[in-house]
Write a structure and sequence with these properties.
LysM; signal; two-stranded antiparallel sheet; LysM_dom_sf; Solute-binding_3/MltF_N; LysM domain/BON superfamily protein; globular; D-Maltodextrin-Binding Protein, domain 2; single chain
């Protein structure tokens, strides 16, 4: 991450912090939490205000500064049952901090889904099945209606890509959370990403199976017009191997997955995330368009999710899991 500049004097317990000259989300995180990489706590507490610029905060801007999360327990889920559920949900493990059986509360998005299900209008009993082979989720799991809804899934821009497999076959909920997709580069390269033009002629690695719709969104069309070279790898670690070997200019992953792989591969100090995000992408609950009650179930879920987001509980869940994640990244 970037070197620490001006020190923001943010105090836990205050409702707001007024940005001073020289502040960034990194310097505020350093002053508040003693760790610039915990900037995501500030980002998600101010998502609506920061989404367009993310890291470019302006003196005079007022930001909410959340306290470091405690160890509050997951909410009770009286409607979640093992057998005889009216609604069957499908997810998978090993996707920290979003969904994982070994993670507190089974992951951030599992907790959000649980809380939304408990607050839906006309709530029903539900179950959650864990299938770690994600290739089985959409087809046949959800398409054949073995399961009613699945999570979490990125949503392509369906208005521009109606024939996309996901768009053509599934309905999407409102976003559970927006995730930042970052560029990870070698720390000794002096890589510049101040605008999209800086990436023209560059090569970016993403593993096989990862979506690329953000690279061809309107105004970019990088892949369609050959402006940026997409290099595929078998997995995330192989992308970083290609980066260190000079075979690609950057690796593109979500901020959490990138940080996790950097830790696992011992690449701290050799690979860094650019300060400017490449894209944002929402993670959703989905249901097959063949499901005869699909729109009804989604309406209820979205109503529960909206109610949750209006409460303090949504921010508490997100904040808790971000804190757990970054503490694990820093641990040996």
């Amino acid at each position: 991450m970037m070197a620490i500049g001006a020190q923001a004097q943010a105090q836990c317990g205050t409702d707001a912090y007024t940005v001073k000259p020289g502040d960034t989300v990194f310097t505020i995180a350093q002053a508040k939490y003693g760790d610039p990489e915990k900037w995501t706590l500030i980002y998600y507490a101010n998502e609506a205000a920061l989404q367009a610029s993310v890291f470019q905060v302006t003196p005079g801007d007022v930001l909410d500064i959340p306290c470091e999360p405690g160890s509050q327990q997951a909410d009770a889920t009286p409607l979640r049952v093992e057998t005889g559920a009216e609604l069957k949900l499908l997810t998978g493990s090993n996707y920290e901090p979003f969904t994982d059986l070994a993670w507190p509360g089974e992951g951030m998005l599992t907790e959000i889904v649980n809380a939304a299900m408990e607050t839906t209008p006309d709530p029903v009993t539900y179950s959650i099945t864990w299938e770690n082979d994600w290739s089985k989720h959409l087809f046949p799991g959800l398409d054949s209606k073995q399961f009613d809804m699945g999570f979490p899934w990125y949503k392509p821009p369906c208005d521009q890509m109606p024939d996309n497999e996901r768009c053509a076959n599934f309905h999407f909920s409102d976003p559970l959370v927006e995730v930042l997709l970052m560029l990870f580069v070698r720390s000794d390269e002096g890589f510049k990403f101040d605008s999209d033009d800086d990436l023209l002629g560059k090569s970016i690695c993403r593993p096989h199976g990862f979506l690329t719709f953000d690279l061809d969104r309107p105004g970019r069309d990088w892949l369609q017009n050959g402006k940026v070279q997409l290099v595929r790898a078998n997995n995330e670690a192989e992308c970083f191997d290609k980066l260190l070997a000079g075979e690609v200019d950057a690796v593109s992953l979500n901020v959490f997955l990138g940080a996790q792989v950097i830790k696992e591969q011992g690449l701290q100090g050799r690979v860094v995330a650019m300060e400017r995000p490449l894209s944002t992408a929402g993670m959703h609950v989905i249901i097959s368009k063949k499901h005869w009650r699909g729109t009804t179930f989604l309406y209820r879920f979205n109503a529960g999710l909206a109610k949750l987001k209006e409460s303090d509980r949504y921010a508490e869940i997100v904040n808790k899991h971000l804190g757990v994640f970054w503490e694990q990244i820093k641990s040996n």
